[in-house]
Amino acid sequence: MDIENDVVKAVMEDLYGVLPRQGPGSPACTRRAFSLLGALPERPLVLDVGCGTGAQTMELVRLTPGHIVALDVFDWALDRLSEQVVAQGLAGRVHTTKQSMAEMDFREETFDLVWSEGALYIMGFENALKTCRRLLKPGGCLAASELCWLTDDAPQEARDFFAAEYPEMKTVEDNAQLFSDCGYELLGHFTEPACAWWDDYYTPIRKLLPALRTKYAGVPDALALFDACDAEMAVHEKHSSSYGYEFFVARRPLH
Q: Model's pTM, two decimal places?
């Protein structure tokens, strides 16, 4: 799907722009991952990569007195986040920037913490880990959730689905090793619970889809996107024990 197409942009805003989150996750998961970081500088500089409409950004601003740079490629996502920031008087601490994560132009060793929930796969996870490491100050941390296989014997239906949707998906163990291979010290990780998929993501999508199918009845790209959402949710309902989002927290060593 061509995200630069104006119709596609409108469809994505109508679907994802009104969701509490643009992917699985929850405030509790954000807080749990943050608790694994250990000590941070008094006012850390944080980069939130693929921030979406900022559910985790607004949680992070409550967890740290530092400054947050929230990055995304969609105007509608950044606009909604900016509205929240202004409404809560946080314009001095949260700054939005429209950039592709593949073309981030920050100086190396800029950030104390890089955060990303369910977005780094867009760059390729290994490439993203290397890129984020360069952006981190020595001793800085990366917290990122990544879709992983939770078992070595996932049902064939699930494997077939992700062979098309995310063929690079690895096991939790393989991704943990990837952190080490990319020069991180892994501080901890955990699997996000079922409620992180449904409460603020899949359940709201299901409520939205009937009206959106009517609104975009003559738009094949839109209907294809809605069909893909239905297919994804159906696979998850049947096979959620075999895959999930793993939240990894790691540190770039001082030396």
A: 0.95
